TrEMBL record:
Key word Nucleus present: no
Identification of the protein by name: RNA-binding protein
SMART domains in UniProt: RRM
Swiss-Prot/TrEMBL keywords: RNA-binding
Region (Disordered): 79-130
Length: 130
């Protein structure tokens, strides 16, 4: 089975409509359109499993870029090894509790705050007068 990632389809589309579009290009094993758990509305992406690679290639070539109800559909091969790869996260820009527990970092942080002047508060005296 070859899994295709489909995104950008209209949110009011049904699985049967996508089956009609993809079945022209080859045999379909399954279609899964992801929905929100609370509202049960489509999230706008899903997966289509095709029977073989040739059918999947034909479907990608034909459906990728197709405009349906004013929305452009994009189709590509799904990352099968996504679960095996570790996710990468951006570094945290805030100091963790471990760093704040260090006395030298606390002293340097408080000294840098002492050297700064407080923000000047703006009063309402600068109103435009007619």
């Amino acid at each position: 089975m070859i899994k295709l990632f489909v995104v950008g389809y209209p949110l009011d589309i049904q699985e049967a409509d996508l089956m009609d579009i993809f079945s022209i290009h080859g045999a379909i094993h399954s279609i899964e359109l992801l929905r929100d758990k609370v509202t049960q509305r489509h999230k706008g992406f899903g997966f289509v499993e095709m029977e073989d690679q040739a059918d999947a290639d034909r479907a990608i070539a034909a459906v990728n870029g197709m405009v349906l109800k004013g929305r452009k559909i994009r189709v590509k091969l799904a990352d099968e090894d996504r679960a095996e790869r570790p996710r990468t996260f951006k570094t945290n820009h805030f100091h963790s509790q471990e760093l704040q527990g260090n006395a030298s970092s606390d002293a340097s942080n408080t000294e840098s705050f002492k050297n700064k002047r407080p923000r000047k508060l703006m009063s309402n005296t600068f109103r435009a007068e007619n």
